[in-house]
Amino acid sequence: MDKPITSLPVPEGVIALIPMRNVVLFPHVLMPLAVGRPKSVAALEHALREKVPIGIVLQKNAAVDEPNRDELCDVGTHATVLRYIGVNDGVHQAICQGLQRFRLIELVDGYPFLAARIIRLDDAVEISTAIEALAIQLRERGAELLSLLPGVPAELGHALQATQAPDHLADIAASLLDTEVSEKQSLLEELDLQLRLKKLLDIVAHRIEVLRLSREIGERTKEQLSDQQRKHLLREQLRTIQAELGEDDDSAQEIQRLDHAIGEAGMPADVEAHARKELKRLAHMSGNSSEYSMLSTYMEWMIELPWKLPAEMPIDLQASRQTLEADHFGLERVKQRIIEFLAVRKLNPRGRAPILCFVGPPGVGKTSLGQSIAKALQRPFARVSLGGVHDEAEIRGHRRTYVGAMPGIIVQQIRKVGARHCVMMLDEVDKVSASAHGDPSAALLEVLDPEQNSTFRDNYLGVPFDLSSVVFIATANVIDNVPAPVRDRMEIIELPGYTQEEKLQIAQRYLLKRQFELNGLNEVQCKMTTQALMALVADYTREAGVRQLEREIGRVMRHVALLVADGLDQQVVVDAGDLEKVLGPARFEHEGAMRSSLPGVATGLAWTPVGGDILFIEATRVMGTDRLILTGQLGDVMKESAQAALTLVKSRASTLGIPSSMFEGMDIHLHVPAGAIPKDGPSAGVAMFMALASLLTNRAVPPDIAMTGEISLRGLVLPVGGIKDKVLAAQRAGIKRVLLPARNHKDMSEIPADTAEAMQFIWINTVDEAVDGAEIRGEKSLFDGAPVAATQQSTGRLT
Question: pTM for the complete prediction?
Answer without folding.
Answer: 0.56
